[in-house]
Specification:
heterodimer, A: alpha+beta, four-stranded antiparallel beta sheet, three-stranded mixed beta sheet, 3 helices, B: alpha+beta, 2 helices, 8 strands, 39% strand
């Protein structure tokens, strides 16, 4: 009887011991530092200037919006699980007018009065940089062109949102205000700015 | 929820679009290329290595913030105008998705390929490097020249014969509580 009890007791003690060790490892994070993957750091490569362009954008309105885009596709191998991805894109759409389109034919000055025709506002920037994109969920392998296609669909949504929120109209209105204010500061008293 | 495949996942709560007025005059645009290199071979318990090479192109715009400009900064004396402008700064960094290309990727037998999240994290580091070193490419100095050219042309069209522009206006920053 004592023999059986001794053999029964041993595995129980062992199990309890293992559980206590696992608990302590988890609780005290004993191997956390040892089994942690090193972060992926990019090399400090040089920046190469490809083009320098003089522009004249007076940006007067922006829209910020978070967009969720997703895609799913068949697995790369036969009978493999479906691939899925969900991205959260924080995008900024900027609109403004191109001051390079203001020329002698659109400006008329006489003494302290000025007439100016401004060009219509256009979208000047749609920014959705890597730091603005969060991979919320991904399963399976996704190649770069598939992800680019998904990000471009997010960009289309942002542009549609800008139209829905009348970003161009707001940019036009603000541009007229900024130019009027500037002309008043420059000493003009009779100001007529239109588009 | 918007998707490429037509497969619909549960729709998340629609976020509100935030509209904001700005007064930024962008006068110069730089197109910058950057090669992103990374090797994942520093974790001791992972057998084999992974290497990736991504080419990217960023569009950096610089100019002045006209919201800093007040009527006090503009002085008119007959046909001469003097404007004290705020100093130029980088206004935007844009890395369009179509300008990000994976040029090379090598993954050892016992390793997993780079995930979308990892590739994006690498590009976020590149974006930070572009943001931090953009000024060292002379974009601010170039912006002073292009701002002077643009504003001088506009002011001449308004009838001014002499235009003096300086970039020494102290910039006021609003501290958030």
């Amino acid at each position: 009887m004592r023999f059986i009890y001794r053999w029964l007791k041993r595995p129980l003690v062992l199990i309890i011991l293992v559980l206590v060790i696992i608990f302590l490892i988890k609780r005290l994070n004993v191997f956390d530092g040892i089994f942690r993957s090193k972060p992926l750091i990019i090399d400090n490569t040089p920046l190469i200037i490809k083009e320098i362009k003089a522009i004249g954008e007076l940006n007067t309105a922006t829209l910020y919006k978070e967009v969720v885009v997703d895609s799913s596709a068949k697995g790369l191998l036969p009978f493999s699980a479906k691939r899925e991805i969900v991205l959260i894109v924080k995008g900024t759409v900027t609109a403004g007018i191109n001051l390079n389109n203001v020329n002698d034919s659109t400006v008329y000055v006489k003494d302290d009065s000025v007439n100016m025709i401004l060009p219509p506002a256009t979208i000047t920037n749609v920014i959705m940089n890597p730091s603005d994109i969060e991979t919320f969920y991904e399963s399976g392998q996704w190649n770069n062109s598939e992800i680019t296609k998904l990000k471009l669909s997010a960009r289309s949504i942002l542009i549609r949102e800008a139209a829905k929120n009348q970003l161009l109209e707001k940019a036009d209105q603000k541009a007229r205000m900024v130019i009027e204010q500037f002309l008043r500061g420059a000493g003009f008293t009779k100001i007529n700015v239109r588009q | 929820m918007y998707g490429c495949s037509g497969n619909k996942l549960p729709a998340p709560a629609d976020t509100v679009a935030m509209l904001r007025d700005i007064q930024e005059l962008a006068t110069v645009e730089y197109t910058i290329t950057k090669v992103v290199k990374a090797s994942d071979n520093k974790t001791w318990f992972k057998v084999g290595e992974r290497k990736i090479l991504i080419t990217s192109e960023a569009i950096v715009k610089a100019g002045i913030d006209l919201s800093q400009l007040t009527e006090k900064d503009i002085n008119r004396d007959g046909k001469t105008i003097t404007i004290q402008l705020p100093p130029p700064k980088i206004l935007s960094v844009n890395i369009p998705p179509e300008n990000i290309q994976v040029a090379f990727e090598k993954v050892s037998l016992f390793r997993d390929p780079f995930t979308v999240k990892e590739r994006n994290q690498l590009m976020a580091q590149a974006e930070k490097q572009i943001r931090n070193s953009g000024a060292s490419l002379g974009i601010i100095e170039q912006s002073k020249i292009t701002t002077q050219l643009l504003l001088s042309r506009l002011l001449m069209q308004l009838g001014f014969e002499k235009v003096n522009l300086t970039f020494d206006k102290p910039v006021h920053t609003i501290k958030q509580q």
